[in-house]
């Protein structure tokens, strides 16, 4: 319109995506961003270098107080946030570190979601309020040492002994495992694959921590060992049998990754942009060279396209129309693009890019895990390939 005044260009929001957010959305985002800036960013390089996440139980309780645990679930002390609000929280948490977002995702989108959707009323009342408050940390046992992408081949078994269940087997790469108070464990039974709510103080349950990781170092990762763990009959999740149970939980968690990966990408892009403006070479800032500007422009385009895709999928989830194939679309695209953004950012920082004084290499190595867990690139390509062609090429 002639004579109208355009809003100024905002380098942090170049296509105006904040216009899509309601005041309530912005409040959630800003609350989580402030918490991460106060409690994570001052310490994360030290935690990452040490390969530990000290004070995880205190951090979980703080996350509970700001409503970040199981935040898209309703009732039982959960915040009842929208899918978009949950996604915004994931983005801000992963902008701090993927390990922090993983803590929240496993707690809310896997362990709590499984109990909320498939559990009995008694299970919900017993566990969900304490998990939402961060008083109890949860983990999710699906992946096994020899069965990652093919959970249907799991060997962990649950057998009836009178009215009890007895669980035997191993799970691998389990976030939160050694600090969890409750584990949702999936096992093969004579009836099919079932989920079990397992208190981690049950005799025969142990969770040795996995060390020597070069990715997700500020995160607790464990093996779960179930050596004849005896559970009462009411430990089983009553509302689901088969892989539909764990796969629906994974879909919910993958949705958070669609957002979270863009948080890691944003942090790396911002570090590269600030560095390019302040660092001088050949008598002028790096930002004054055409090749550097081309890199920054390409990074910004992919970053904000990824956030726009996450917004779109979030609106579909809130409307009840989001399909699992669409979540695969989002995870496949956004994690791949996030890694590429981190790698490009590293080239702008040069040798400084490998230093923990900057977040770029930490995000890049974390994203190598995010690329693999909850569905590898190949699995999501095949999910989309089947959806596009109607032909199942998994086997």
Based on CA atoms alone, the radius of gyration comes out at 22 Å
Q: Main beta sheet, described?
A: 4 strands, antiparallel
CATH class of the largest domain: Mainly Alpha
How many domains is the backbone divided into?
Answer: 3
What would the CATH topology of the largest domain be? Butyryl-CoA Dehydrogenase, subunit A, domain 3
Q: State the low-pLDDT regions, or none.
A: none
Secondary structure category: alpha+beta
**Gross CATH architecture of the largest domain:** Up-down Bundle
**Helix proportion of residues, in percent?**
40-55%
Beta-strand segment tally? 9
CATH level-four homologous superfamily name of the largest domain: Butyryl-CoA Dehydrogenase, subunit A, domain 3
Strand content: 5-15%
Instruction: Give the strand line-up of the largest sheet.
Output: 2-3-7-6
Order of helices and strands: HHHHHHEEEEEEEHEEHHHH
Distance between the termini: 57 Å
Mean pLDDT, rounded to whole units? 96
* Shape, principal axes of CA atoms: globular
**How many helix segments?**
11
Family: Belongs to the acyl-CoA dehydrogenase family.
Domain Acyl-CoA dehydrogenase/oxidase C-terminal: 242-388
Protein name: Acyl-CoA dehydrogenase
Keywords: FAD, Flavoprotein, Oxidoreductase, Transit peptide
Keywords:
three-stranded mixed β-sheet, 395 residues, 9 strands, alpha+beta, 50% helix, flavin adenine dinucleotide binding, Butyryl-Coa Dehydrogenase, subunit A, domain 1, Butyryl-CoA Dehydrogenase, subunit A, domain 2, 3 domains, 11 helices, 14% strand, Butyryl-CoA Dehydrogenase, subunit A, domain 3, four-stranded antiparallel β-sheet
